[in-house]
Amino acid sequence: MIGNGDITAPQDALRMFEETACDAVIIGRGALGNPWIFQNTAHFLKTGELLPDPTITTRMQTAKRHFDLAMKLKGAELAMLQMRKQLAWYMKGLPGAAKRRSEINSCKTAEEVLSLLT
Ligand SMILES: Cc1cc2nc3c(=O)[nH]c(=O)nc-3n(C[C@H](O)[C@H](O)[C@H](O)COP(=O)(O)O)c2cc1C
Known about the structure:
The chain is 62% helix and 5% strand. The protein is mostly helical and 118 residues long. A two-stranded parallel sheet has the order 1-2. Strand 1 (2-4), helix 1 (10-20) and strand 2 (24-26) form a beta-alpha-beta unit. Helix 1 (10-20) packs across helix 2, helix 3 packs antiparallel against helix 4 (76-91) and helix 4 packs antiparallel against helix 5. The protein binds flavin mononucleotide. Residues 4-7, 26-30 line the site of flavin mononucleotide.
């Protein structure tokens, strides 16, 4: 049995295991802009220790890599459109995120987008 729904932090996964006695959990929306949630959750379940949040630099480097891979897969034009939401999730909660999001949404080229992911 797999537990699923509203796991957005490692502690949610532990609660799901404890309350439902499930064999595994799925994390969906909680991974958007936060791919670290998988290793952090695995680490927490194993050791009880919460790892620190990724730094802004790590978040932006990961967003850039994600964007780069999307461009290789889909081409720059489509990747730029499809990645808007993803990039917004990577920036969620950071200072100035709303302004940066709107700047990204008005970019015309991939280079412009990349230059804003700092
Ligand atoms: C980006 C994304 C992709 C998903 N793709 C699938 C899928 O291919 N098949 C599926 O059955 N559910 C899919 N789901 C649904 C999730 O497995 C999950 O049931 C749902 O998001 C609720 O869990 P959450 O609260 O952790 O998001 C997807 C969810 C997200 C956010």
